[in-house]
Amino acid sequence: MKIVNLDAITLGDADFSELNNFGEYISYDLTRYEETLERCKGAEIVLTNKVVLDKAILSQLEALKLICVTATGTNIVDVEFASQRGIIVKNVAGYSTLSVAQHTITMVLEFLSQLHYYDTYCKSGQWSQSPTFTHLAGGRVSIDSKKWGIIGFGSIGQRVAQIATCLGAKVCYTSTSGKNQNTSYPQVSLENLLKECDIISIHAPLNPATKNLINAKSLALLKPNAILINVGRGGIVNEEDVTVTLKNGARFFYGCDVLEVEPMRKNHPFLDSSIQDRLLITPHIAYAYGDSLKNLIALSIDNVKTFIKTGK
């Protein structure tokens, strides 16, 4: 059996050596789209994190039986076409719930506290020149009693709700799929959530229903100094609209760990120097705190083992 891993380096020092027990295991650090077909030829199992497997590729891979997405989102695979071809698609769910929740909370607290400002104030030597023991500038906003709206109320959204509640926030949510119902928190419409909440975090998958869900019209609904966090998927928030809205004087904060195109484009609008004080960007790391990567790798290997044993 030929097993191909298309982008192993995206999982750090991932150890997939156990897959050598099941056949010929070939690992590539990274794979460009134009290299994908040649590298996957003859493979019965393909692992991919972010390498796209679309209809054009899948239609030419006659031996392929299993696609293991080494992530939660499966939008990089034409799942419908794979199903028509009898190709099983497996992902890994639940491995990073606490990790993403922690990253979300970290981004929100940074916006509220503006700790980076105070850190710079001290390290620049300004505090040592001050006549007083303290320096009370911007930030220092309490999370207590703030309204926190969550878009996408799966396992990650619900974990964020629990932590936010412990910190004193008043949580509500909207389910983008309509499937997630939780009587512990009020469910509201997306429009009301955007209008009423001080903090909004996105934990939804990217699909036709969520593509450009947050756009110029949506952003116009935000309260002054609202915090908007996207740790779901790039493409849910229209990045051009965020930039234009901020440049036009809107006063909200935007933090994201995901972009529509990754890595970040060299000419990305978020690099505009005039809006930097309103942005917080991290390079798709929310999923990788603590043991989450080890769990991801173990579960991905289990997906392969289960398929080999059961054909499912």
From TrEMBL:
- Give the UniProt keywords, A-Z: NAD, Oxidoreductase
Its EC number is: 1.1.1.95
An example Pfam family from this entry, by short name, is 2-Hacid_dh_C
Q: Where is the D-isomer specific 2-hydroxyacid dehydrogenase NAD-binding domain?
A: 105-286
Please list which residues make up the signal peptide. Answer: none
The organism's superkingdom is given as Bacteria
Protein family membership: Belongs to the D-isomer specific 2-hydroxyacid dehydrogenase family.
NCBIfam families according to UniProt: PRK08410.1
> What is the name attached to this protein's record?
D-3-phosphoglycerate dehydrogenase
